[in-house]
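In the laboratory, one determines a bound structure by crystallizing the protein with its ligand and collecting diffraction data. In a computational setting the workflow is compressed into a single prediction: the sequence and the ligand go in, and a structural description comes out. We illustrate the idea with IPE.
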Amino acid sequence: MNTLNTTDFKHVAIIMDGNGRWAEQRGRPRLIGHQEGARRIKEIVRACPHLGVSHLTVFAFSTENWKRTQAEVAGLMSLFRRYIRKEMQDFMKEGVRVRFIGDRIRLDAKLRGLMDEVEELTQNNSRIHLTIALNYGGRDEVARASRRLAEQVALGRINPADVDETTLARFLDTCFLPDPDLVIRTSGEARISNFLLWQSAYAEYEFIDTYWPDFTKEIFSEVMQRFGKRDRRFGAVVA
Ligand code: IPE
Ligand code: IPE
Ligand code: MG
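The predicted complex, in structure-token form:
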């Protein structure tokens, strides 16, 4: 793998899509695809420091994914619990700080407990910042942030005239994160499916045909090399 020579660390966000189709292609149950998908995360997290990526955010379950069969949803929830339990010590070994974004209210108590546990355990790690989006939806996040902001206004703690982009951003789940520089979606779909809507205002996008369980550090490296050549203007005219 080529190692990028960069001191300018980046936030990469990934829509890990295609687990179901990966399994179906092999005549296996969709949950096998999700299991393989979860296994892929480690290699990609490990590659981050070599590719100039300090923050990695992965989309694991959307606010719309509850519409799937009860069996698939239950299988995914049980996979998330097993994943956190199994990876907890490796996160410590590899200096990974883990945090979650999304609405936790609808998740079961056992899973929520594990999420709290891994966040607390890894809170002093800083080599790689891994954020897992679980029951996350961009619109839901903005709506929840607005609700909390409105509560502060109602209490007289914030003056409506002072509300600007920075104020609202402080109430988002992602308040601890820089905006993503690059959003990658695997599986060939070219849509964002409610992921980081506010935060991706100036993100670059890469849509990759590979299904997530086949996404390797070599593909990740190629994507990062392409990203390095992009001309990011942020609305300005570069002289
Ligand atoms: C992404 O893979 C994982 C989740 C949404 C939980 P999919 O399950 O969406 O896989 P496809 O898109 O059906 O192939
Ligand atoms: C987006 O993928 C959510 C995750 C990867 C967790 P989906 O497979 O749910 O999105 P759609 O339904 O194709 O838009
Ligand atoms: Mg999908």
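The chain has seven helices and six strands. Keep in mind that any predicted model is a hypothesis to be tested, not a measurement.
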